[in-house]
Amino acid sequence: MNTNTHPRISLIVAVYNAEAYFHTFMQSVLSQTFTDFEVLLVNDGSSDGSGELCDDYAARDSRIRVFHKANGGVASARQVGIENARGEYTIHADPDDTVAPTYLEDLYAEAVKEDADMVMCDYYVVQAKKMRYRRIAPKSLDSSKMLDGILLAKIPGFLCNKLIRRSLYERFGISFVAGLDYGEDTLVCVKLMLGGIKIAYVKKALYYYNWVVNPNSITRKYNRQKFEMRLNFIKQISAVIPEGEHTAGVNYRCAEVAYQCMKWGVIDDKEFESIFRPYRGKFWRSKFSLKRRLVLLLAASGFQSMARNFIKKKR
Questions:
Q1: Cα separation of 228 and 182, whole Å?
Q2: What CA–CA distances, in Å, run from 128 to 85, 125, 207, 213?
Q3: Which of 30, 112, 200, 240, CA to CA, is 20 to 30 A from 224?
Q4: Residues 167 and 229 grouped into a single domain
Q5: Residue 184: CB partners within 8 Å, gap ≥ 6?
Q6: Alpha-carbon span 166 to 103, nearest angstrom
Q7: Range(s) of the domain holding residue 68
Q8: Are 228 and 238 in contact (CB under 8 A)?
Q9: Which of 62, 2, 57, 52 is nearest to 27 (CA)?
Q10: What is the pTM of this model?
Q11: pLDDT tens digits for range 17-57
């Protein structure tokens, strides 16, 4: 039994059918140079042996706690983790990735040094033939400017490279939106940064974001389900950001969702026009290229054949 009810960090892991790569991930977690942490493994109704593996690890290490739930998606699993976390800070990691040995040590040291609410770091993208270093290098750590960077996709909105003070979730009434399983982490970042939090930055790549081991990840494919989640995401973003604020970022996100939808042909022309006609002003004022703005305006106005003269539509 884990008797440490006040660890410095709670590492939350949403687990779904991760049996093939779970050992590699857990080995990187349990090799941390920082030891005052707990691991919350939330088994989201896995149909493989992931649940049993979670229990096996918990039996061997008292810092690990396991929560089994019916499948409800990654957002609901992350929420279970937040509700049960006991750490001063929280961080989320995905079981198809890995973390550097000093992942928690470096992030926590910076949090203490700066008395920061959120600490972020650089990361690696692991691809089949190469590994790319992704440097955040923010021009400003002001939360409002960081929020603009996230909305304009200049700074990643995922949570795996962000250590966050746990009390902020309660202070700002933030929770993960059930069913929003794409962009759920970005939405949380947006809500946090709207609160004017103090942010710090570690200039090291401490997380390995793996594009190889899990080809079924929802972030690797574009289909009707993903489109509907992204449409929900921009509705959620538009609802939480005060009118007239961060308009460049909101416009960009709306245009991005519409353009990807049209590019991959996941809905028919009539439905596209019906959904996106109200967004035409946002499309035109977005920071997309003139060509892409014209494509979206034409398609959302019912002139799909003209729009397709500018874009090769994939199906």
A1: 9
A2: 35, 10, 17, 9
A3: 240
A4: no
A5: 74, 75, 78, 176, 177
A6: 18
A7: 9-218
A8: no
A9: 57
A10: 0.92
A11: 999 999 999 999 999 999 999 999 999 999 999 999 999 99
